[in-house]
């Protein structure tokens, strides 16, 4: 087991023994990766950090060397991975002390919320014992590490403070006092520490010392900062002055309740402010169950329970909160408060704390003359009124944590429901709020919503129309409610007609226009959009231009023409605002209706030139990164000459074939959509060049229908460009793909079209490619003699062109067809020459195909052990560069060879794997392998 220590000097241990990293750059690289453990860091950002903002021209290559050396030193190559987002080190809380520290703190805080103070104290102590010194103490504080050191140090201080406060609650004021005194001296302006020190002195019978702490702090704040002590510290001081008896028993978390007794509300005043429940509420069973787990019950809670319900506009946050509040209202006999804080209202006038607390005090009928003049006084009175009472508080439409924090009661007998379009991580971190992210409705829940609103019989009568409505609304409750209302108003109109209208209007949001701002999807979305920062708002608009189902950070950075860090910050803000979702790490998607809204905003707010430039940068990102990735998969293919990327485009370079396949797999749908968008938008050159970069990946992974799609779009583009060489390439690849799909007649026509174009431009190598591919197609139809003829023509053309990779492929093809004709010795000769030439060229794909041919020839000669050896090498190569079809075929051949040597169990194992892949690809060869398996099982019996 390997462990990492960063809470002090950097330390690495493997199985308890220290791992030496003598090179300073390796230690720095490891430290930076650990500072963002389990998160990718781009190569560019790593290089900037390692070389202090001035990386050399060779930085990427040198970084690869350092990563390799680090992997070797750690003895675990998979520990530092490379993917589309960059380099990432993986670690668990059992392996990295900073993660263990965070985990222990979270468990400690949870234990305290559940009333287990002793358990919480033990967990805090375990967390604090992990600290050996300042984080990363032996490393220079570059930008990335400095931020992490500051974060960890602040969390350490906060943990010490919480731990000491807990010791005070457990009666340990004497021993906590000296530690608090030293900590407060080191942080003289941290008033929360000063408050704990005052409380410790008071409970130890040192009232004068407690008052002196306040006097010295107040003087220091005035002299050095020109400010007075904060309200919380002043309230504690007043409580000490009057010997408030609550000081001996109040929990540290409830110090805010120590305001001087104020006039209570008139006896019997019980507010009941909840809005009306939705009579046709449906779905959300899982969310309601999670909310039910928040009920205080008799668990001895020491802090108020808070649930933060967040989600995108129109997802039903308020509806859920109000519905559940009505279900549990009887559990809170002292009142139910509801306040719309207007955090996302269209006029931008969010309710401030003064107006909010006044409304809450009015709910308890507090006479105006008894309400304190200051905001702090009013908030203190509000908390005092709720102290010890069972009150439910619903704070709706909250902008952020600061918006709601002053209004949280201090009594553990209360429960608070908060709704917001933003995630509220600060409220979760500092107040222990239980987050509940409200997602879209499932198809079943959407159908249930329609049935509740327009009647189950009507829904059951037109299931196809209902399915179409559900799909077009995308699970968004507001959209479904608008459509249901239209259906209810027009009860005599068939749902099929309504669905047809939605589909016809589907390009925009007019189909989801309601009767007022609250029921108009466009208006509701606008309230979230207007709350964004300028960079995030621009990013959201530009997302309306992206053609794919989602996009990664580098693609978003290119779209906006900003550095990756700026793009990630904007996307994080959009994620917090629930305008996008980070559905997998580093990839963001937008609800269909939000995407349409973003497109409308881009059309109206972004100049045409900027929209054009943004789409061009995005296409350049895909084109140039795909070119780099394709080179990792097919190093010997002649690369296309393409123009440099536009300024502001981010280009990634996957480090190896595995990373290239991972990038293509993640971007698959986006790349196909990008080709189609480029062709439709007049970016013809980019359309055909991008399609060309996708051919190797799509072919090897068996995505032949998608390959036909992008090649067809590219053919249209090259026709408009009048580019005959490009058309020749594309016709040939269309033909090869048609062969894969079993469309042999279509393939022959496409091959001849390619030959015609290649001859017109006198391209001998291109003609050789086409004859070679024709040979493969003819052989698949059993026309071996013709296949051999075309392949021999290919060899002659390749020789004339001086194209060595083609000569190697043709030699292998001739050997293969000789083997099929029964001349196995000639096959071994031709294929052996091909394998040697592929080895000189470093063409591993060619080596795989040739080893397969050699395996077949050896098998036909009865040398099955040699055949198995060739096939095993073939299989390893196909697996390495992700050729799924080749992997399936080779597994089938290995099954045949193992059956021939009398090992039916091994044969069945290989055939089973072949069948799985063929079925996954939807290939007809699956039936053949399935029959072999049946025969093999029967023989084994």
UniProtKB/TrEMBL annotation:
<protein>
    <submittedName>
        <fullName>SARP family transcriptional regulator</fullName>
    </submittedName>
</protein>
<dbReference type="Pfam" id="PF13424">
    <property type="entry name" value="TPR_12"/>
</dbReference>
<dbReference type="InterPro" id="IPR001867">
    <property type="entry name" value="OmpR/PhoB-type_DNA-bd"/>
</dbReference>
<feature type="domain" description="OmpR/PhoB-type">
    <location>
        <begin position="1"/>
        <end position="91"/>
    </location>
</feature>
<dbReference type="InterPro" id="IPR011990">
    <property type="entry name" value="TPR-like_helical_dom_sf"/>
</dbReference>
<dbReference type="Pfam" id="PF03704">
    <property type="entry name" value="BTAD"/>
</dbReference>
<feature type="repeat" description="TPR">
    <location>
        <begin position="848"/>
        <end position="881"/>
    </location>
</feature>
<dbReference type="GO" id="GO:0043531">
    <property type="term" value="F:ADP binding"/>
</dbReference>
<dbReference type="InterPro" id="IPR051677">
    <property type="entry name" value="AfsR-DnrI-RedD_regulator"/>
</dbReference>
<dbReference type="InterPro" id="IPR005158">
    <property type="entry name" value="BTAD"/>
</dbReference>
<dbReference type="GO" id="GO:0003677">
    <property type="term" value="F:DNA binding"/>
</dbReference>
<dbReference type="GO" id="GO:0006355">
    <property type="term" value="P:regulation of DNA-templated transcription"/>
</dbReference>
<dbReference type="InterPro" id="IPR016032">
    <property type="entry name" value="Sig_transdc_resp-reg_C-effctor"/>
</dbReference>
<keyword id="KW-0238">DNA-binding</keyword>
<comment type="similarity">
    <text>Belongs to the AfsR/DnrI/RedD regulatory family.</text>
</comment>
<dbReference type="InterPro" id="IPR019734">
    <property type="entry name" value="TPR_rpt"/>
</dbReference>
<dbReference type="Pfam" id="PF00486">
    <property type="entry name" value="Trans_reg_C"/>
</dbReference>
<dbReference type="GO" id="GO:0000160">
    <property type="term" value="P:phosphorelay signal transduction system"/>
</dbReference>
<keyword id="KW-0805">Transcription regulation</keyword>
<keyword id="KW-0802">TPR repeat</keyword>
<keyword id="KW-0804">Transcription</keyword>
<dbReference type="InterPro" id="IPR027417">
    <property type="entry name" value="P-loop_NTPase"/>
</dbReference>
<dbReference type="InterPro" id="IPR036388">
    <property type="entry name" value="WH-like_DNA-bd_sf"/>
</dbReference>
<feature type="DNA-binding region" description="OmpR/PhoB-type">
    <location>
        <begin position="1"/>
        <end position="91"/>
    </location>
</feature>
């Amino acid at each position: 087991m390997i462990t990492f220590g960063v809470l002090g000097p950097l330390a690495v241990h493997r199985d308890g023994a220290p791992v030496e990293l003598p090179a300073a750059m390796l230690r720095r690289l490891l430290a930076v990766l650990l500072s963002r453990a389990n998160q990718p860091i781009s190569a560019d950002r790593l290089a900037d950090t390692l070389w202090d903002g001035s990386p050399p021209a060779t930085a990427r290559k040198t970084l690869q060397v350092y990563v390799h050396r680090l992997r070797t030193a750690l003895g675990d190559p998979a520990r530092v991975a490379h993917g589309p987002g960059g380099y990432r080190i993986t670690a668990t809380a059992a392996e990295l002390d900073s993660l263990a520290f965070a985990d222990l703190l979270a468990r400690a805080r949870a234990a305290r919320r559940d009333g287990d103070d002793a358990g919480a104290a033990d967990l805090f102590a375990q967390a604090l014992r992990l600290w050996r010194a300042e984080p990363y103490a032996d490393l220079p504080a570059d930008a990335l590490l400095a931020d992490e050191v500051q974060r960890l140090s602040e969390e350490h201080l906060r943990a010490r403070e919480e731990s000491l406060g807990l010791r005070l609650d457990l009666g340990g004021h004497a021993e906590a006092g000296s530690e608090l005194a030293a900590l407060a001296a080191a942080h003289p302006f941290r008033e929360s520490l000063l408050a704990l020190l005052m409380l410790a002195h008071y409970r130890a019978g040192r009232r004068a010392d407690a008052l002196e702490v306040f006097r010295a702090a107040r003087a220091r704040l005035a002299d050095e900062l020109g400010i007075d002590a904060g309200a919380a510290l002043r309230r504690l001081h007043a409580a000490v002055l009057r010997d408030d008896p609550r000081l001996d028993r109040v929990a540290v978390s409830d110090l805010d309740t120590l305001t001087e007794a104020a006039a209570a509300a008139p006896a019997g005043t019980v507010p009941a402010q909840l809005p009306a429940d939705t009579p046709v509420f449906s779905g959300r069973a899982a969310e309601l169950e999670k909310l039910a787990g928040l009920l205080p019950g008799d668990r001895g809670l020491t802090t108020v329970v808070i649930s933060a319900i967040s989600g995108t506009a129109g997802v039903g946050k308020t509806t859920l909160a109000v519905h559940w509040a009505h279900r549990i209202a009887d559990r809170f006999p002292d009142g139910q408060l509801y306040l719309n804080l207007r955090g996302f209202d269209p006029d931008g006038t969010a309710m401030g704390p003064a107006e909010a607390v006044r409304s809450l005090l009015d709910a308890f009928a507090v006479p105006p003359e008894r309400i304190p003049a200051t905001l702090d006084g009013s908030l203190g009175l509000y908390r005092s009124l709720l102290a010890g009472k069972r009150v439910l508080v619903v704070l709706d439409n909250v902008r952020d944590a600061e918006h709601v924090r002053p209004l949280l009661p201090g009594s553990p007998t209360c429960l608070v429901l908060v709704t917001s379009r933003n995630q509220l991580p600060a409220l979760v971190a500092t107040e222990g709020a239980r987050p509940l992210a409200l997602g879209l409705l499932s198809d079943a829940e959407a159908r249930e919503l329609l049935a509740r609103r327009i009647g189950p019989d009507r829904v059951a009568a037109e299931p196809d129309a209902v399915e179409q409505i559900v799909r077009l609304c995308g699970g968004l409750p507001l959209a479904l409610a608008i459509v249901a209302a239209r259906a209810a108003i027009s009860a005599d109109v068939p749902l099929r007609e309504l669905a047809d209208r939605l589909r016809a209007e589907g390009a925009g949001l007019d189909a989801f226009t309601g009767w007022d701002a609250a029921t108009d999807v466009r208006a509701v979305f606008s309230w979230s959009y207007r709350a964004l920062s300028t960079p995030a708002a621009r990013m959201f608009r530009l997302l309306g231009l992206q053609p794919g189902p989602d996009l990664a950070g580098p693609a978003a950075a290119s779209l906006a023409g900003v550095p990756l860090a700026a793009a990630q910050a904007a996307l994080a803000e959009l994620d917090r605002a629930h305008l996008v979702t980070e559905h997998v790490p580093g990839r963001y998607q937008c609800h269909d209706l939000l995407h349409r809204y973003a497109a409308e905003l881009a059309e109206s707010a972004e100049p045409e030139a900027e929209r054009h430039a943004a789409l061009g940068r995005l296409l350049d990102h895909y084109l140039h990164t795909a070119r780099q990735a394709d080179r990792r998969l097919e190093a010997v293919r002649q690369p296309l000459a393409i123009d440099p990327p536009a300024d502001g485009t981010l280009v990634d370079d996957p480090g190896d074939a595995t990373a290239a396949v991972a990038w293509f797999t993640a971007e698959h749908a986006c790349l196909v959509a990008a080709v189609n968008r480029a062709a439709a938008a007049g970016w013809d050159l980019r359309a055909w060049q991008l399609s060309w970069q996708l051919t190797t990946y799509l072919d090897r992974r068996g995505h032949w229908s998608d390959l036909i799609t992008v090649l067809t779009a590219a053919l249209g583009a090259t026709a408009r460009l009048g580019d005959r060489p490009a058309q020749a390439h594309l016709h040939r690849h269309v033909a090869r793909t048609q062969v894969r799909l079993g469309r042999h007649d279509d393939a022959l026509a496409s091959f001849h079209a390619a030959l015609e174009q290649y001859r017109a431009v006198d391209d001998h190598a291109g003609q050789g490619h086409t004859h070679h591919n024709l040979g493969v197609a003819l052989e698949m139809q059993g026309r071996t003699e013709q296949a051999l003829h075309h392949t021999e023509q290919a060899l002659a053309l390749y020789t004339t062109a001086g194209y060595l990779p083609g000569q190697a492929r043709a030699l292998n093809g001739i050997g293969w067809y000789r083997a099929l004709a029964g001349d196995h010795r000639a096959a071994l000769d031709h294929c052996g020459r091909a394998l040697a030439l592929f080895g000189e060229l470093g063409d591993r794909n060619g080596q795989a195909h040739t080893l397969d041919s050699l395996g077949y020839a050896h098998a036909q000669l009865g040398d099955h052990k040699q055949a198995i050896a060739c096939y095993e090498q073939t299989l390893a190569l196909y697996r390495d560069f992700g050729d799924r079809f080749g992997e399936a075929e080779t597994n089938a051949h290995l099954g045949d060879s193992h059956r021939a040597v009398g090992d039916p169990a091994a044969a069945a194992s290989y055939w089973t794997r072949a069948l799985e892949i063929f079925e996954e690809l939807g290939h007809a060869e699956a039936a053949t392998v399935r029959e072999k398996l049946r025969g093999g099982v029967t023989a084994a019996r």
